[in-house]
Amino acid sequence: MINKNIILITMILLLIGSISGADLPPIIDLYYIKFNYTSGTTNDAIDIRINNSTDISVPEWYPSYSRNEKIAYKKSQSNRKIKAKFYVYNGPINNMKVYANHSGGWGNINEGTVTFNGSAYSSEALLTFSGTTPSSVGKRYLALIWYITEIDGEPIADTYIHDSGFHAYYTLLDDPVSPMQEPWTQVLDYTCSWASGQTTNSGTIKKITEGAYNNIGKTYYGGDSHTYAQNFYLTNFFSENYADCQDMSAVVQTFSNAVGISNVKVRRVLGPFYTQYILPIGTSNWLYSIEWGIHQFSYYNNKVYDAVLKLWDPIRIPTAEGIYNNYYYDLFLSGTWNLLTPTAYTNVY
Amino acid sequence: MITIAKPIQYLTFISLMIFNLQTVKAQKSYYLIESDLPGYELNYESDFGWQIGLNLYKDCFRQSWKKIGDTTSHSFFIDYCEFENSFNAFRGTAYARFGFAGASIWGSSINGLIQADGSWVFLTPDAMYFVRGNIGIKLGAPLGYYYKTDLFQEIIDKILYKVENNLKTEVYNAELTAKQNQISEDNYNRIIEYSTKSSDMVGYNLTTEWDSKWVTDSSNFVMGIRKEWTHQNGALIGIDICQFNSDIEAENAAQIRAEDAVTIFSPNDNRDCDHYSLDNQDQLSCILEKWQDQFYLNSQNDEKRFEESNISIVGYKKNIAFHFYQYDTTRIDTGKVKSILNKLANGIENF
Question: What CATH number belongs to A4-172?
């Protein structure tokens, strides 16, 4: 809601003004900010959503609706623009100039012109960040402190009008990739934490794999999956406490897609085969000679990333390993190993 | 502020309505509802699916359930998969179980009771598939949290009751037709009495029987009779027998049943003795050796495997196909299995 104190002060000033007839300084407030104001990412933030069923509303920062949504940008991007709308309580004014300093972000908002043309609400002003988005994956926070420098062509001393934020923002490696072309914040919260500081695709996938194994809170169960054909039922996956190899390979693929890594695949092995020593996700006892009908792992740049198990010698979550150097030898004990061609999940629900 | 908010709230309401209309799938009359399971509530319902063949998928429906008031993320689930006919349901359900790392076995070891036209139980017995008519069902309690034999049996019984009362007319009529050509109870008993009255089955008492289905290579099925005997120590023996019009039909149906009932081998595994002729002792020996090999190969940790308590053998003689299976937690005696099957051969020979 509009700050009640400002309204009260405004009403008092208006009352005094009407009695005395004196000219009062305009009282101006920031009304909302749009970070993802148009499709594409040429100038603005990335289109993201909260989860499968809930999109993120724009304007993302909209105090009248108690709204302060998360935003996302590609790494190392300059000239990021926003659209901001302002409100004047005791106009009319025609235009003004504003800028914002930042705290915790990557740059200030350059000075720009806001047009009112006598209305209480301004037009949406297109304003530009001065700096460059961070160069690595992460989830960070940005606050903007807004000032007015000029009203109707008359320069004024820099006048504070409002803080906005903290705006939580994710930094991704690149444009998100299908089926996570509109990433879920539910996913980015994990990914940008696990892969925080990473600047490369391979480094990020490695961190996602390790993060998923260690921190996604699932326990291995080989009798079911949240995947079906090329579909990954991620909402159901999040709501339950178990996972199989298909789930975890889908996690690595789609979570990588969410931060902009393409060509991440999954590969299935048709068994049955017996395993060497393994420590399945969420378990605490090493198992030997476990019978598996199938197995599936993530596959990127001809390397294995397997978030469902640890191998024994040396103890590790397999990342960036060649299938036959040494993943296969450390996993396979006996039986059938029929390696299928790579494929990918194309739908996430 | 209020005037702005109203239309947005209204639009949100409308969009939610549209969302729900798009995502809520038509409920089938055989799906369980909350009044069917007092004390439990639906966690979620969702479109889902099964892989029912190589690159072949089937849209299905999943319910996730939990105890009312359970704030953990534990749950149990029921998949409902409706097929075009009984043939596709049987074969599709038999295949669907291969889509997971966990291995499964043919039968009804959950409670020593036959569960509909066919059932497959995972080795960690907290999930199972079963099929009735053209409906395939998967019931699972991941991590065993909700796995209780009584609860599973109660759910199975309720699902089967609803499925039975909602069978498609075509399915029902096909079963009536097949029943006309079913082996008679007398002939069934005549064939098996050499085995059941032998010392090999002392202590086993008849518990359940079912009109079994043997799918054939003509995308149809022939009806047989399946009976199970249980021992007071919990062991179970099942014998399913079906009579066909010709020897070749019996052999073909046995081959298909062998594929569908195979214990741990995945569909891509080509075995040289997955079913056998009762006249061919070499083939029977081959099957039993294969069965044992799977344990010897992996017995380094000398840990008794669940599969060692289970055996499932499919074969044929003349125009009769049979399916013998046994669960015995004290370990299967292959000598007795061989003896029972040889007596079965006598029964068919003298029938």
Answer: 2.70.50
**pLDDT for position B141:** 93
The ipTM is: 0.84
Contact A239 B44 (CB under 8 A): yes
Whole-angstrom distance, CA of residue B211 vs CA of residue B200: 25
Between helix A201-215 and helix A245-258 the angle, nearest 10°, is 140
Contact across the interface for A2 and B64, Cβ inside 8 Å:
no
Chain A CA closest to residue B304? A289
Closest-approach residue (CA) in chain B for A233: B48
- Domain ranges within chain A, ordered by starting residue: 4-172, 185-348
Q: Where are the domains of chain B?
A: 34-170, 181-350
pTM: 0.88
Q: Rounded distance, CA B54 to CA A328, Å?
A: 24
CB contact at 8 A, A44 and A81: yes
Spatial contact of B89 and B134, defined as CB atoms under 8 Å apart = yes
Q: Write the pLDDT tens digit of every residue in A239-285.
A: 999 999 999 999 999 999 999 999 999 999 998 888 999 999 999 99
pLDDT in tens, B294-316: 554 444 444 445 456 778 888 88
Looking at chain B, which residue has its C-alpha nearest residue A31?
A: B1
Distance CA A243, CA A224 (A): 8
Phi, psi of B91 (to 5 degrees): -70, -40
Nearest to B261 by CA among B103, B100, B101, B107: B107
Q: In this predicted model, what pLDDT tens digit does every residue of A126-171 receive, in sequence order?
A: 999 999 999 999 999 999 999 999 999 999 999 999 999 899 999 9
pLDDT above 90: residue B201 = yes
Q: Which residues pair with A100 in a beta bridge?
A: A109, A146
* CATH class of the A185-348 domain in this structure: alpha beta
CB-nearest to B100 from A64, A224, A333 is: A224
A95 φ, ψ (degrees, to nearest 5): -160, 170
Kindly report the CATH class assigned to B34-170: alpha beta
